[in-house]
Amino acid sequence: MKAYIFPGQGAQFVGMGKDLYENSPLAKELFEKANEIIGFRISDIMFGGTDEELKQTNVTQPAIFLHSVILAKVLGDDFKPEMVAGHSLGEFSALVAANALSFEDGLKLVIARANAMQKACELQPSTMAAILGLADEVVEQICAGIEEVVVPANYNCPGQLVISGSIEGIDKACEQLTAAGAKRALKLNVGGAFHSPLMEPAKVELQAAIEATAINAPVCPIYQNVNAQPTSDPAVIKENLIAQLTGAVKWTQTATNMIADGGNDFVEVGPGNVLQGLVKKVSREVQTSSASIA
């Protein structure tokens, strides 16, 4: 079965989407529509801006979303997903690509999400760290024993778990996880503690926007971050999207479940190839590739 997967924050690069804009009238039209909705020419930053400009949360999130969604739209009849999933932000791209959300509504939600997350980051200094080479259970146990806010945030693949929380909590956890045998405990250059309880203010803000948005049944099941389970029910999709901001991204479990349900050909739609690498860590048997226009 063909599984389409959509990347999240961190996959961006200067020049992303330029080939689509130059080679497809549909892509050009969608990029211009996005520029209007956003209120500035995000396409100019994507195609020829600086890394610094592209790294701003209010640019990064819509940029990755646009690259992914417009690529899926340009694929046209070649885009025939039997299952979809997206990593964090990528879940919104997956929903638009699978026709559960309109292009405009998806973009507006991503902008609202980026702004809400930015505000939550400014309320309390916080961060994330990648923990390599430890079993998930060990990381969970150590995080649970720390008095500060510190939680598992991204289950990326076996042996790679990103934790999220207050600066003090992350520092304590990194120290204890290194002592417990982690190969690396690497603090990440991020603006805040995504997928943790510290995103509660953003969740409250985004919840209203998600509840006011029409979501339809997707053309195929979507495996969502918070529970790694397939669903086509719009009410469940909304609940899971709201829970996603403060809940962990269960990517290891998502890839495992998609493979168990027959997914054997994973196509990454959007910038980079990070998700292909993560899927391969779950199973060497599956095929992976990047979507591209001929």
- What is the element string, with H for helices and E for strands? EHHHHHEHHEHEEHEHEEHEHEHE
Could you give the count of β-strands?
A: 11
Strand line-up of the largest beta sheet: 8-7-2-1-10-11
Report helical residue fraction. 40-55%
Uncertain segments are none
Q: What is the molecular shape?
A: globular
The share of residues in extended strands comes to: 15-25%
Global structural class: alpha/beta
Our measurement of the CA-to-CA distance between the termini, rounded to an integer number of angstroms, reads: 22 Å
Gyration radius over CA: 18 Å
Q: Give the biggest sheet.
A: 6 strands, mixed
| Number of contiguous helices | 13
Chain-averaged pLDDT: 96
Organism: Pedobacter ureilyticus
Keywords: Acyltransferase, Transferase
Protein name: Malonyl CoA-acyl carrier protein transacylase
Catalytic activity: holo-[ACP] + malonyl-CoA = malonyl-[ACP] + CoA
Short note summarizing the structure:
This protein is of the alpha/beta class and 294 residues long. It is built from 13 helices and eleven strands. The chain has helices at 18-23, 25-38, 42-48, 51-55, 57-75, 90-97, 103-123, 136-144, 167-179, 200-211, 234-244, 251-260, 274-282; strands at residues 2-6, 83-86, 126-132, 150-157, 160-166, 184-187, 222-223, 230-231, 249-250, 265-268, 287-290.
